[in-house]
Design brief:
Helix content is 42%, strand content 15%. It has 231 residues and is α/β, with parallel strands linked by helices. It has 2 domains: 126 residues, HAD superfamily/HAD-like (Rossmann fold), CATH 3.40.50.1000; 84 residues. The chain is elongated and about 55 Å long.
Length: 231
């Protein structure tokens, strides 16, 4: 994700790597870029695996039962499939997943819940890495006078991954009470930071969770195709 040199403006001709899709309008004049975090700025896949294993191990220690990372994956999917949990912040989904994991072993203690969650977050944050192209891109955007806002359903500690100094503010779902793919996530960001929609560009790694809702809210939008899937 490298932005070329020149005037403080982003154009459709500007080279951006890795592969981008769905670039809007022949010319974009933006003052603010809303950046997704997981999968866009940080490589969260390996971190998620480490986090699930840590949560499973801690749960096993507390319940004296066999618990695997696959159990965490299974229960997370049941939460995601539950209509009551659609459009809910990632931190709330994580908490409900761990609650169900402990409940399967007849543990409903709030201290145990906090303990397992802390193990999850610590392991995740230790394993998080930024994509190689991110730092140079953020430096270039800041040099052009672009205001950068981290807009995410997650709760990555930007200080811990070394990105906080580039980011002016955060717009995290658990902070604002609405999550992607609800377009209100983006309209609320425009309101909070007093940004005209035509001056905002949303960048993410998913069409369904980033591109579509941002466009529905009236923002310019771009997808970074990290996996090279083309969809």
């Amino acid at each position: 994700m490298v932005i070329g040199s020149g005037a403080p403006e982003i154009t459709a001709e500007t080279p951006v790597q890795p592969q981008t899709m769905y670039r809007d309008s022949p010319r974009l004049r933006v003052t603010h870029v809303l950046l997704d975090v997981d999968g866009t700025l940080v490589d969260s896949d390996a971190a998620a695996q480490a986090a699930r294993q840590a949560a499973a191990s801690r749960c096993a220690a507390l319940t004296h039962a066999e618990v695997s990372a696959l159990d965490v994956v299974r229960l997370r999917q049941t939460v995601l499939n539950d209509p009551l949990w659609r459009g809910v912040a990632g931190s709330a989904i994580r908490r409900e997943t761990v609650r169900r994991l402990l409940a399967e072993h007849e543990v409903a203690d709030e201290d145990a819940l906090r303990d397992v969650l802390a193990s999850f977050i610590e392991a995740r944050d230790c394993a998080l890495t930024t994509f190689p192209d991110v730092r140079a891109c953020l430096i270039e955007l800041r040099a052009r006078g672009i205001t950068l806002i981290a807009a995410s359903n997650g709760d990555v500690d930007l200080e811990r991954v070394g990105l906080a100094k580039f980011i002016t503010d955060t717009h995290y779902a658990h902070e604002v009470g609405v999550a992607k793919p609800d377009p209100r996530f983006f309209t609320l960001a425009l309101s909070r930071f007093d940004i005209p929609s035509h001056a905002a560009l949303a960048v993410g790694d998913r069409v369904d969770n980033d591109y579509d809702p941002a466009r529905a809210a009236g923002l310019h939008s771009m997808v970074i195709d990290r996996a090279g899937a083309g969809s």
